[in-house]
Amino acid sequence: MPRYTYGMATQLTLDQRIEATPGICGGKPRITGQRIRVQDIVAWYEFHGMTPDEIVAGYPQMTLADVHAALAYYHTHHDEIQRQMADDEAFVDNLRRTDPRSVLKSSGTDANGNRASS
Q: What is the pTM of this model?
């Protein structure tokens, strides 16, 4: 969904900034029109200590309002997002254990991209 039409910014409400579409990002909530999931923004904010401004600087296709909408969505749907993140972590752990070809086995990172401690 384009953010700008004929030089004027489209005004999206909070609930229009987040969407979940079957077949896109596993049906997980994401920024409307993008493949950046709410859980990605949560991981950058909570686990990597990035501020909303730093997240936008790293992903300029997003607006500051998008980041805040994702964080608001997270706080409203906390248990759902935490479950999705735990499911992803379990999937990666299982892949590391069972697939000898997995690059995740030797990467030393978890599902959120954090380095494992030695």
A: 0.74
Name residue 19's beta-bridge partners: 30
CA contacts within 13 A on the Cβ side of 50: 19
21, 43, 84, 97 from 105: Cα distances, Å: 30, 21, 21, 8
Return the number of other C-beta atoms located less than 10 Å from residue 108's C-beta: 11
**Domains along the sequence of the chain with CATH:** 13-102 (1.10.10.10)
Contact 41, 55 (CB under 8 A): yes
pLDDT per residue over 43-101, tens digit each?
999 999 999 999 999 999 999 999 999 999 999 999 999 999 999 999 988 888 888 77
AA identity, residue 19? E
